[in-house]
C-alpha cells in the first residue's frame, strides 16, 4: 500500500493518491466519506488537518461535498502543507528531491481515524538516473528506553550528543551517575517522585525538555522532545518512581493522550498503546558504558 504523488508541477500542488489499499480500508473510507489522519512521526503520533476521502467526495471549507476525483486520496484540508511535505518535515528528508511514492501502513484508532505510518520513500527519477529509495526509521516504542527495550531514536540521539558536545556529555553522564548513587542509599525510599526532576538539566542536554511540574492531570504536560534533525515534538511526561504506578492515570484518564512515563525503575511488561517509558537506571548504565 502506498501514496502515489500526482499532479507534480501543476496548479494546486501535488496530490497523494491512496494506491493498492486493502478493501476493508477503502470500504471504511466510503462508509465515513472522510477519515481524519493521524500521522506517525519518528517520535510518535500527531493529529493533523489531513483527511482520507473517497473518489466521490471532497472537503470544501470543512464540509463534505460531491466530487469526481476518480481516486481515493489524502486531502490536506486546512493544512498549509501536503501529507508528503509533512512526512518530509517530520522525518528530516531531503528537501531538494521529489517523491514518487511513499510506502505506508494504516491502522485505525477508536475514533475511526487513520493512523498513517510511513515506511519507505521512493524518489522520482531525474533524467536517466535510477530512482532511489529511503527506508524510514521504525516508529515502534520510539521514545522508550528501559531494561527490555532501547529505541534506536534514543541511541542515535545519545551518540550524536556524545560526539558533538563531549564536555557537556560528560557532565550529563555525571548527573545520572550521581542520581543513581543517591538512590542506592537506604533513606532514598522516603524521597518524593518529584525528586527525579533534579535530572531536568541533564535530560535537557539529551533533548528531553521537561515542562513545569503541576498538581493535576499529567505531571509535566508541557514537555517536548527535540532529537537529531527532527522537529520538536510536544508530549506529556508523567514522573514515577516505578513504571507500574502509571496504572492510576490509566484508570482515571481512560482516553489517554500520547504520554511518556519517566521512572526510576521499569517494572511492567505490558505497556499501553502510545505510552513510552524512560527508565533512569537503564539510561544511566547506557550513558556510562
Mean pLDDT: 89
Going by helix content, strand content and strand pairing, the class is: alpha+beta
Number of helices: 7
The H/E string reads EEHEEEEEHEEEEEHHHEEEEHEEH
- Beta-strand segment tally: 18
Low-confidence stretches: none
Major sheet description = 7 strands, mixed, barrel
Question: Strands of the biggest beta sheet: in what spatial order?
Answer: 1-2-7-4-3-9-8
Distance between the termini: 41 Å
Q: Give the domain tally.
A: 2
Helix content: 10-25%
| Structural shape | elongated
- Radius of gyration equals 22 Å
Q: Summary?
A:
This protein has helices at residues 23-32, 83-90, 152-164, 166-182, 200-206, 247-252, 280-288; strands at 2-6, 15-19, 34-40, 45-53, 57-60, 63-66, 73-75, 99-108, 114-123, 133-135, 145-146, 149-150, 208-209, 224-225, 233-234, 236-242, 259-265, 275-279. By secondary structure, the chain is an alpha+beta fold.
Task: Offer a few descriptive terms.
31% strand, 7 helices, 2 domains, elongated, 7-stranded mixed beta barrel, 289 residues, single chain
Describe the overall structure.
This protein has helices at residues 23-32, 83-90, 152-164, 166-182, 200-206, 247-252, 280-288; strands at 2-6, 15-19, 34-40, 45-53, 57-60, 63-66, 73-75, 99-108, 114-123, 133-135, 145-146, 149-150, 208-209, 224-225, 233-234, 236-242, 259-265, 275-279. With 289 residues, it is α+β, with helices and mostly antiparallel strands. The protein has two domains: 2-135; 145-288. The strands form five sheets. The protein has a seven-stranded mixed barrel with strand order 1-2-7-4-3-9-8. Strand 16, helix 6 (247-252) and strand 17 (259-265) form a beta-alpha-beta unit. Helix 4 runs antiparallel to helix 5 (200-206). It is elongated.
Amino acid at each position: 500500500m502506498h501514496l502515489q504523488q500526482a499532479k507534480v508541477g501543476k496548479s494546486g500542488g501535488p496530490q497523494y493518491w491512496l494506491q493498492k489499499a486493502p478493501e476493508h480500508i477503502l470500504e471504511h473510507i466510503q462508509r465515513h466519506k472522510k477519515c481524519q489522519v493521524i500521522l506517525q512521526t519518528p517520535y510518535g503520533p500527531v493529529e493533523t488537518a489531513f483527511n482520507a476521502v473517497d473518489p466521490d467526495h471532497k472537503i470544501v471549507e470543512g464540509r463534505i461535498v460531491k466530487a469526481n476525483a476518480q481516486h481515493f486520496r489524502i486531502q490536506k484540508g486546512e493544512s498549509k502543507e501536503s501529507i508528503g511535505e509533512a512526512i518530509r518535515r517530520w522525518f528530516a528528508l531531503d528537501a531538494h528531491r521529489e517523491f514518487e511514492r511513499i510506502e505506508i501502513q494504516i491502522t485505525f484508532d477508536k475514533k475511526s481515524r487513520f493512523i498513517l505510518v510511513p515506511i519507505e520513500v521512493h524518489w522520482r527519477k531525474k533524467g536517466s538516473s535510477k530512482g532511489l529509495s529511503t527506508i524510514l526509521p521504525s516508529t515502534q516504542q520510539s521514545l522508550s528506553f528501559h531494561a527490555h527495550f532501547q529505541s534506536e531514536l534514543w541511541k542515535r540521539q545519545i551518540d550524536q550528543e556524545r560526539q558533538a558536545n563531549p564536555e557537556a556529555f560528560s557532565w550529563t553522564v555525571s548527573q545520572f551517575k550521581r542520581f543513581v548513587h543517591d538512590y542506592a542509599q537506604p533513606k532514598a525510599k522516603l524521597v518524593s517522585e518529584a525528586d527525579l526532576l533534579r535530572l531536568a538539566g541533564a535530560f535537557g542536554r539529551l533533548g528531553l525538555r521537561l515542562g513545569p511540574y503541576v498538581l493535576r492531570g499529567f505531571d509535566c504536560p508541557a514537555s517536548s522532545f527535540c532529537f537529531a534533525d527532527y522537529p520538536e515534538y510536544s508530549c506529556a511526561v508523567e514522573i514515577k518512581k516505578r513504571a507500574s504506578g502509571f496504572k492510576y492515570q490509566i484508570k482515571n484518564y481512560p482516553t489517554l493522550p500520547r504520554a511518556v512515563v519517566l521512572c526510576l525503575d521499569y517494572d511492567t511488561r505490558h505497556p499501553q498503546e502510545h505510552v513510552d517509558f524512560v527508565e533512569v537506571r537503564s539510561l544511566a548504565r547506557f550513558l556510562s558504558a
